[in-house]
Amino acid sequence: MGYTLNKVFQGFYKDSVALMRLSRDLAAMDGVEEAGLMMGSPSNKQILMDAGLLADDGAAAEGGDLILAVRAKDATAAQIAADTIEPEIMSQTRAATGDSFWRPQTIRAAAKANPDANLALISVPGEFAAAEARKAINRGLHVMMFSDNVSIEDEINLKNQARERGVLMMGPDCGTAILDGVPLAFANKVTTGDIGIVGASGTGIQEVTTLISNNGGGISHAIGVGGRDLKDEIGGISTLMGIDRLDADPATNHIVLISKPPGKTVLPNIMKRIGQSAKPFTVCFIGASDLDLPANATVARTLKDAAQAALGGDAFAETEISETGSNNNGTEIRGLYSGGTLAAETQLILLDAGLEVVSNAAVPGAGQLSDDVDGHKIIDLGDDEYTQGRPHPMIDPEIRRQPLAEALADSSVGVVLIDIVIGYGAHPDPAGQLAEMLIAMPGKDDTIIIGSVTGTEQDPQVRSSQVKALQAAGIHVAGSNADAAIAALKVPGINS
Amino acid sequence: MASDKDTPSLLGGKLSVINVGLDKFATELADHDVPVVHLDWKPPAGGDPALAALLSKMGA
User: Fold this and answer.
1) A402: which DSSP letter?
2) Which residue of A25, A149, A218, A245 lies most exposed, with the fewest beta carbons within 10 A?
3) What does the pLDDT average to over A218-235?
């Protein structure tokens, strides 16, 4: 065990993406064994302690302090690494220095100076997020809350407060929205059109909006509501308010709803609200069955079905992937997903084909993932167990490295399914990073890898460039996540 | 089909954002010509979440 050094920057904040980049730089320095840069919250200190990175100085830090933690081969190497990274930590970011930015310290000051502001986009650590949202709603601002780890009690209170003020409370844990044609947080640059979306799933919204855009349609607005909105405790407050807005919006002619199955007491209220609208609806409640829909609504089983239904029901062209079977004769499908709803969509398609499926984010009909359970394993790498103390896999695709290596080394796995989600907020080159990861992995030539790219040509990463990078790495690329799952079923030896 | 320019606003006015947290969200909005103020945010109340929640309820 080497030497562990902690340095505490009191009352100093830097966002988690910047800290991830700096942590990487620190860890790559000469003689450094492990390193981390984290705000001094109790949960972060626990993570540092578990990693053997917490020294006495760091243990004494407060929630508003930044901890630099480095373990190196000796004290000199640790000190040199810390001294080298410190100027980077202290340097200002682009948003702080750009000419067009002024930086008030509170929402109150920002709202006073900018009376036209109408939306607060909140992505601070979850333990502080509700307090900031409360201030924003009090000032009549709509809120999009990207932060997660917010209590359900806070969510209920914030959504009730927002309803009273007549503003939208999107989130917590709202990763995606497109408002007035502008992608917010994790979203794609799509064609503007007449299809509006209300969704409790970020990657679900991304898959449906991009499929619509890539197949000749367009999006008016996409309103994210957070993954828990349709639970009975919340009552679908934001979903119902989102429907109201889109129903009254002259640019929206068709409304798509995307969510996990709603709670028992919420479902009738959603159905009633749909029935009051003169507009047609497509309802995609992933994993729900026996929905009793009003006459103006159509049910969609998968995200791809939802996009097709919103565009009039004609089937999109399917991707043909011809394979004669894996070289290792593996019979199992292993799904490694950054998008939770994409993982759910794949589970449904496999279940509908009669396969046994297990997952750490199981849909109705699938089993829970554990070491001693048989079945095709579909893993949501965005789940809390993988993201504790680190960014989501759509920002940091490194999370996929270890499970991918394990899948390729496992001779029972014949097909690996993956998703690449691009757009604003996402990693600048996830396909390139995956390709680079694969180079060093044994077993990659014996296993069939099938994936899809959720995104558009107008996204910063450019969908076709990402597709080419995957294909060059030997990955089969389908036109949608659903098509990738269907292609996996067609591989000889799998569907049995 | 509507062009990008004539989408009516969903929020009752041209989108204008106060960004609280991740820096990159502010720069991406600015790249879309959306007016954005990026807060110089620090954990309030010395990093004590319970006190921060109390202060926000008091309208601070």
Assistant:
1) H
2) A149
3) 97
Q: Which helix (H) or strand (E) element contains residue A84?
A: helix A75-90
Domain coverage including residue B46: 15-57
- B51 CB within 8 Å of a chain A CB: no
- Start-to-end CA span in chain B (Å): 46
- R_g over Cα of chain B: 16
Interface test with B, best of A41, A89, A101 (most B CBs within 10 A): A101
CATH code of the domain in which A199 resides: 3.40.50.261
The answer as to whether A320 is a domain residue is no
What single DSSP character describes residue A120?
E
Q: What angle do CA A71, A77, A81 make, to 5 degrees?
A: 80
Q: Closest by alpha carbon to B16, among B38, B37, B39, B35?
A: B35
Range of the domain at A178: 107-310
Total number of domains in chain B: 1
Tell me the three state secondary structure of residue A66.
strand
Identify whether B38 is part of a domain. Answer: yes
Query: Which residues in B lie closer than 8 A to residue A20 (C-beta atoms)?
Result: none
B27, B35, B53 ranked by CB distance to A95: nearest: B27
ipTM exceeding cut-off 0.95 for this assembly? no
Q: Average pLDDT, stretch B17-33?
A: 92
